[in-house]
Amino acid sequence: MIIGVDIRPLSGGRHSGVEEYTLNLLRHLFALDQKNKYKLFYNSFGQPDEVLELFRSYHNVEICQFRYPNKFFNFSCKFLSWPRIDQLVKPVDLFFMPNMLFSAFSAECRQVVTFHDLSYLFFPQFYSTKRRWWHRAVDPRHLAERAEKIIAVSNSTKIDLIDYFGVADDKVTVVHSGVDLTTTSEDLTAVKRRYNLPAEFILHLGVIEPRKNVIGLVAAFEKIKARTNIPHKLVLAGSPGWLYRKIYARVKKSPVANDIMLLGFIDHRHKSALYKLADLFVFPSFYEGFGFPTLEAMKYETPVVTSPISSLPEICGTAALYADPYDVNELAEVIQQGLQDKTLRKKLVTEGLKQVEKFNWEKSARETLAVFESLA
After folding, report:
1. Do 309 and 253 belong to one domain?
2. Distance, CA of 56 to CA of 61 (rounded, Å)
3. CA 364 – CA 361 distance, rounded (Å)
4. Which of 159, 174, 273, 356 is the 20 to 30 Å CA partner of 289?
5. 126 in a domain, yes or no?
6. Angstrom distance (rounded) from CA 349 to CA 314
7. What are phi and psi of 294, to 5 degrees?
């Protein structure tokens, strides 16, 4: 088969969960599949970056780069059903979209689409007005109906697709994402010095936005500090997202503001060192389609506290501690337990390493390829 792939999710350079998924899945898919040919659709005025150069190294990959202005392209796809992407990269036997984006296809083009989550439906208050309009315009329900097959990154997302879009159970295949298991030789001392990290700290790594429940984490940390003498600081790492100023302002007003660090954007090359140096990783999100950071922390032997909602129990299993993200007192108690119970911490590290082994990109690539081949 000749398989078209939309690699526009890689054009933003954000290192988001969707970008990590797209890059890692495709790398392993191209290395695994020596039978089919892949034609990559890329639309950007920018010059080819290292990702495109990486893809060019695969003998079974052809990159089809276009330079349509994005606003024009999106408007035209939405209202004129033009240009038809499968015709731009033709011929293709099917087309794979690793994420939902504006697109138009010929009626006969078979499509496979990955859905990561439906958080925009459940928590519209966590998205800007512009982003809510974007989701409405892209029309995920139509994308789901149009697709021949749908890939969901978790059972939680599959259930949401069935319940809210009414898609057939056998149309949706769950393919869990992976976690990169390569080791790192990062100099921990250098990273510690670069970010001025304390000797002992609790880590939260993710976009600083309301959906991640950062304010709830800060409130829980305040309670712990008020009733214990733990030396730990709270390190909030990640790019500023929507309404981040409100979160930053809350941190500045905190009675323990001197014990809270806001690191901002973290170079992806330094993430593993942050996990290794942390005493506890806390991810009290209100909703996640998959939750990459929890597995990343487990990989680097850091105990995890997260939320018992959406996909997180499915992904973390018995390898994490759980706290209701809406209950600050419970979150504080569980964090304190995760810091002070040495026997429990050792158990979480052991279970975490076992849990991580269940999620690898080669397995994800094999299962994705099986979805493609079911349409051959």
Report:
1. yes
2. 6
3. 5
4. 273
5. yes
6. 18
7. -65, -45
- 369 and 318, same domain (yes or no): no
- Domain identity same for 133 and 231: no
| Same domain? 328 vs 368 | no
Whole-angstrom Cα distance, residue 294 to residue 363? 19
CB 109 within 8 A of CB 94: yes
Domain that holds residue 83: 2-178+360-373
Nearest to 15 by CA among 4, 23, 7: 23
100: alpha, beta or left? (left if phi > 0; alpha if psi -120 to 50): beta
Sequence-ordered list of residues with C-beta below 8 angstroms from that of 119, at least 6 positions apart, any chain: 126, 211, 287, 288, 289
Q: CATH number, domain at 61?
A: 3.40.50.2000
328 assigned to some structural domain = yes
Residues 245 and 290 in one domain: yes
pTM of the model: 0.94
Question: What's the pLDDT tens digit per position in 61-101?
Answer: 999 999 999 999 999 999 999 999 999 999 999 999 999 99
- The token duo for 36 is 């089919």
Total domains in the fold of the chain: 2
Q: CA of 162: how far to CAs of 104, 121, 167, 252, in Å?
A: 24, 14, 5, 43
Give residue-wise pLDDT tens across range 184-193: 667 899 999 9
Q: Does residue 294 lie in a domain region?
A: yes
- Examine the domain organization and report whether 249 and 274 are in the same domain: yes
What CA–CA distance (Å, rounded) separates 173 from 122?
Answer: 22
Could you give the angle at which helices 214-227 and 244-253 cross, rounded to 10 degrees? 10
